[in-house]
Amino acid sequence: MPLTQIRKTIAKRLAASIGPVPRFFLTTEIDMERAAEARDHLKKATEATFSFNDLVIKAVAVALRQHPAVNAWWMDDHIRIHHAVHIGMAVAIPDGLITPVIRDADRKGLAEIGTESKELAQRARDRKLKPDEYTGATFSVSNLGMLDIDEFTAVINPPEAGILAIGRMAQRPVAHEGTVAIRRRMRLTMSCDHRVIDGATGARFLQTLKGMLENPLALVY
Predict the structure, then answer these.
(1) What mean pLDDT comes out for the span 179-200?
(2) Which residue range is the domain that position 141 belongs to?
(3) What is the pTM of this model?
(4) Which of 33, 97, 175, 190 is buried most, with the most CB atoms less than 10 Å from its CB?
């Protein structure tokens, strides 16, 4: 099977990431009960629609605003800290993977992110993305939860310093308020470029992200 141009590009970028990038991984599990309740309430009360992936994108963007050291690029002789937050969203297409970018995601509401993510994903599958629509991300997310994957590690897209892998949301028995309860839980795994992000830096970012998803009131407006 001959290589398409996009498959050649993917192969080249993956090799550039896996080889020289010193990576480490951080995994946390999120209680998504409040997030699910907030989404259900908004669906009933308004016409706004958004997915759990959109909610994570929004939370990631807001958390990056609080942790600028994670919103960075490795530039060989310096680290570039970005003031703007542009989230790359991995989308599977027939011959590979492409990452459309939601720009200034921290400043957009969930409904706007939901609409934009759907449009970008469809344009990606239709091969209609413009170059400025899939370049310039400052951090990326990849979601395989819809394919029943509990957790995984995603490959960093250089020069970005990190990427978040989103697993499926599933009901699990957990200790909750002194008893065993069935709660909706979701695992997130962050791949970090150790040249830019130290362990404690990545862990604090995930702590902030977890707090936002478990108490999502500020994110849903």
Answers:
(1) 96
(2) 5-219
(3) 0.91
(4) 190
